[in-house]
Structure formats: structure tokens, C-alpha cells
From TrEMBL:
It comes from Glomerella acutata (Colletotrichum acutatum). Its EC number is 2.7.11.22. InterPro entries: CDK (IPR050108), CDK11/PITSLRE_STKc (IPR045267), Kinase-like_dom_sf (IPR011009), Prot_kinase_dom (IPR000719), Ser/Thr_kinase_AS (IPR008271). It is an enzyme of class 2 (transferase). The lineage of its organism: Eukaryota, Fungi, Dikarya, Ascomycota, Pezizomycotina. The keyword DNA-binding does not apply. Residues 1-96, 416-453 are annotated as: Disordered. Keywords: ATP-binding, Kinase, Nucleotide-binding, Serine/threonine-protein kinase, Transferase. Belongs to the protein kinase superfamily. CMGC Ser/Thr protein kinase family. CDC2/CDKX subfamily. GO terms for molecular function: ATP binding; cyclin-dependent protein serine/threonine kinase activity. This is cyclin-dependent kinase. Residues 122-413 form the Protein kinase domain. The keyword Kinase applies. GO terms for biological process: regulation of mitotic cell cycle. One of its GO terms (cellular component) is nucleus.
């Protein structure tokens, strides 16, 4: 080995080039860091000048200065974002001009705690109605003259838990709902003596009529086009509730309001509640008797949106005839009337009905002859599509009933006569300024009551004589 041989550990030309590259990159990083620090210092200096100028302007309180001598006021969003520029307004306010595409802050309304107003801000005009869960009066706001409905919540004397859960649910649901077919909650007010829990009032929008009163006073029933308008609005409101996981559980004509512009609104949410999937444990005794579905009457402990759909079907029939469709005197009589109109359940039409507590001991006719639905016979003016819709709504099997959204797409609303426009709806004289009216209908169930046990009931004779009838399209003929 010679002494002048090159060591294999000596730097090659490639190593020298790499070292030079790394050195240049290191110097560039230092330069960028220094430039960034310089820009930050410059931005801070400009901000201090802007603050000083603003303070001096505020102290002098003089707007007639030479604007050209004022330092430019700029706000840097980031130290190195040179392409984002702002310019101040003429009076020293917040920066205005931001480069298009820059992110903007989004603002959301937030809840807050505040003291309720006093009921003394309203002057009571007259009583309207007394329901299961409260008294409703007509009142006028003293400052604006606006007429409202004032609902005072009922407090059971034996209830030591304070405000009833039904009242809390009604307030919560009404505050959450925002739909044109649901009555609007304006505010909650309290009496002067806030130590008394019963001094809580719901201020609701005032609606002139309820469908129950209109139907009782009408000399002739609604036109089919008007029935479609009312039914479609009711269905739209129910669809909104169900989409938001709310069951009303007391739909009936006395809880449906109608204003003088033909707009229907669902009211009285005393029995309503939120549900989920899976459904929580629900109260078994719900819905006013005449509008209660067969699964509830047969003791179902789990139920869903179909209980509201059954009530919609009962209301549909009531709009056509001006009287409640199924007027039972008690639970057994109500089930009898349902089976007389809709037929008896079978393993084919309702496979699970025998598992319900009150259905195990029921006795039905041994032969299926003449035990079907009588809806076609009862409603002779309905078209085939209307009869099909009513049959589906009043299906004994809750799983066979359509959803509210499916109802809105039904053929019945698209065929002639078309639904009447709300603006063309007839008006009716309001009774809200008169004396309190008495209702000729069962009251809504009271929370805490137990559902009735039907016991051993024999339904085998309810269809006697029906086999002598021949049913046609829209009429019935009895053979003599």
C-alpha cells in the first residue's frame, strides 16, 4: 500500500455537495424564522399604533382630522398571511374588508336562564274550556293588545312532587316544536305569588275555533275537498311530531284548532311525550276512549306511532259524518263497536293479537263469514281511494297502518275533488268570547289511572244478521 493512496473514509464529491445542500437549507430556515419574527413585530407595532390612534380619537372626540396622517389600521389573522388584508372604517370601528374565501365565525343561539314574566301582563277576557290537564282562558296582553290563549296547569292537591310531569312535558315539547300545524307557545308566565306551584300559565297563540264545536254546529258536513284540506294538514302536523320522536297520544277533534284562514293546528299536549328506539316504558292508559286504538284497549304495554294514526282515522270518519265514529260507553263497548265496524282480528290479519293481555279470553264467531270490515257500507260517498285510506288507518293490526309520511303521498289527496286552498276555506262565527262550553265526549285519561281489564267477553254474536246483507260498491242491500 502506498502512502499517497486515498482513504476510503475520505469525503467524496457527493458528500461535499450534500453538506453544502444541508447548510443552505439550515440557513434558509434561519432566514425564514427571522423574517417571521420580523413580520410579527411589525404587526404588533401596527396594532399598537392603531390602538393609540383610536384612543387619541376617543379622547379628542373630534371627527374632522386629516385622515391621511393617521396610521393604517390592520389586523393580521396570522403573522405570515400577507394576502389577507383588512381596512378600517372611517370612524375607527372594526376591520371590514377580508379577502374573499376567508373563514367566518358562525353564531348559534344559546339558551339562558331568565325570570318569567308575570301573568298580570295579561288581562283575562273569558273562560274558554276546562280540560283534563288545565283551564284555558282568552286573554289580552296589556301592552300590545294581542289576544292569546292562557292555559293554567292543573295541580293535583295530593301530588307533593310539585309541577306534574305532564305539564313539564307539554312545555318542553311545545318549546321544541316549530310547525305551522302545531299551536305555538309564546311564553310561560307566573302569578305574583310564586310560592304557589299552581300559579304557572302557558301563553299560547289564540285560534278562533276547534273542530269539535264546528262539527256540532254545522247544518251540513264539510265538502270532500274541505275534508281533504283538514286531513292533510292534520297528517302534516302528525308527521312532524313523529319525525321528531313525539307521540301526541290524545288526538281528537276538540284538540284540533282552526283559524279563520283555514289553517289547522294541533293543540293540548298534556299526554304527549318523547319516545325513542328502543321505546321507553310508556303509560298504558292513554288516548280518549272514542279515539283509542284496539291494541291499547286489549292491554298492549308497548306501542308506537300507530296509536296516533288510529286516532287520525277516527277523526277522518268524524269529518265525513259530523259525529264521532266509535262512541263506546266503556272499554268493552268500545271494543265491540270497533269489531262491528272493522271486523274481528284473525291470525292472518293480526298474528300477534292473542298475546295481548285482554285478548286471551275473547271469544269470536267460529265462522269467518260476514265478519269483515263495514267501512265501505258506512261511507258510501267515499271513492275507492278514500275508502282504502280509511280502511288502512283503521286497520286492527298496528303494523298494517300507514305512517303519516305515507299518508301524505296517498292517491286520495291527488284525485278529484282536489283539497280546497286554505284561503278559500269557509269562515265560522267564533264562540271564544262566549260562555264556557261543555263537551259531550269522554275525558282524556288521568295520569296514574290503571287500564281496564276487559275480562271474559263473548263477541260471537255481534255479527248476527250481517250474513243476510249483500254489500256492493257504496251501498248495502238487506234481503227480505
Amino acid at each position: 500500500m502506498t502512502s499517497n493512496a486515498k482513504s476510503r473514509w475520505a469525503d467524496s464529491a457527493e458528500d461535499a455537495a450534500l453538506d453544502a445542500k444541508l447548510k443552505r437549507e439550515k440557513e434558509e430556515k434561519k432566514r425564514l424564522k427571522a423574517e417571521k419574527a420580523r413580520k410579527a413585530a411589525e404587526a404588533e407595532r401596527l396594532a399598537q399604533q392603531a390602538r393609540a390612534a383610536k384612543n387619541s380619537n376617543g379622547a379628542e372626540n373630534d371627527g374632522e382630522g386629516d385622515d391621511s396622517t393617521r396610521p393604517a389600521k390592520r389586523r393580521k389573522f396570522t403573522p405570515d398571511a400577507e394576502d389577507r388584508t383588512t381596512t378600517a372604517d372611517g370612524d375607527g370601528g372594526a376591520p371590514l374588508d377580508v379577502k374573499e374565501g376567508a373563514a367566518k365565525l358562525m353564531r348559534f343561539p344559546v339558551g339562558h336562564w331568565g325570570k318569567c314574566r308575570s301573568v298580570e301582563n295579561y288581562d283575562k277576557l273569558n273562560d274558554i274550556e276546562e280540560g283534563t290537564y288545565g283551564w284555558v282562558s282568552r286573554a289580552k296582553e296589556a301592552s300590545s293588545g294581542k289576544v292569546v290563549a292562557l292555559k293554567r296547569l292543573k295541580i293535583e292537591p295530593s301530588d307533593r312532587n310539585g309541577l306534574p310531569v305532564t305539564g313539564l312535558r307539554e312545555i318542553q315539547i311545545l318549546r321544541d316544536c316549530n310547525h305551522r300545524n302545531i299551536v305555538n307557545l309564546e311564553e310561560v308566565v307566573v302569578g305574583d305569588d310564586t310560592s304557589k306551584i299552581e300559579n304557572i300559565f302557558l301563553v299560547l297563540e289564540f285560534v278562533e275555533h276547534d273542530l269539535k264545536s264546528i262539527l256540532e254546529d254545522m247544518p251540513e258536513p264539510f265538502l270532500l275537498s274541505e275534508v281533504k284540506t283538514l286531513l292533510r294538514q292534520l297528517t302534516a302536523g302528525v308527521a312532524y311530531l313523529h319525525d321528531n320522536w313525539i307521540l301526541h297520544r290524545d288526538l281528537k277533534t276538540s284538540n284540533l284548532l282552526l283559524n279563520n284562514r283555514g289553517q289547522l293546528k294541533i293543540a293540548d299536549f298534556g299526554m304527549a311525550r318523547y319516545v325513542g328506539d328502543p321505546a321507553p316504558k310508556l303509560t298504558q292508559l292513554v288516548v280518549t276512549l272514542w279515539y283509542r286504538s284496539p291494541e291499547l284497549l286489549l292491554g298492549a304495554r308497548a306501542y308506537g306511532k300507530a296509536v296516533d294514526i288510529w286516532s287520525v282515522g277516527c277523526i277522518f270518519g268524524e269529518l265525513l259524518t259530523r259525529e264521532p265514529l266509535l262512541q263506546g260507553t266503556n272499554e268493552v263497548d268500545q271494543v265491540t263497536k270497533i269489531f262491528e265496524l272493522c271486523g274481528v282480528p284473525t291470525q292472518e290479519t293480526w298474528p300477534s293479537f292473542r298475546s295481548l293481555p285482554n285478548a286471551r279470553s275473547l271469544r269470536f264467531p267460529k265462522t269467518p263469514n260476514a265478519t269483515g270490515s263495514m267501512i265501505r257500507t258506512k261511507f258510501t260517498t267515499l271513492t275507492n281511494a278514500g275508502c282504502k285510506l280509511l280502511n288502512d288507518l283503521l286497520s286492527l293490526n298496528p303494523d298494517s297502518r300507514p305512517s303519516a309520511k305515507e299518508m301524505l303521498e296517498h292517491k286520495y289527496f291527488r284525485e278529484d275533488p282536489k283539497p280546497k286552498k286554505e284561503g278559500m276555506f269557509p269562515t265560522f262565527p267564533s264562540k271564544a268570547g262566549q260562555e264556557k262550553r261543555r263537551r259531550h265526549e269522554p275525558n282524556a285519561p288521568v295520569r296514574g289511572q290503571n287500564a281496564a281489564d276487559l275480562g271474559d267477553v263473548d263477541f260471537s254474536g255481534i255479527f248476527q244478521g250481517r250474513d243476510k246483507e249483500e254489500k256492493g260498491g257504496g251501498f248495502s242491500l238487506r234481503l227480505v
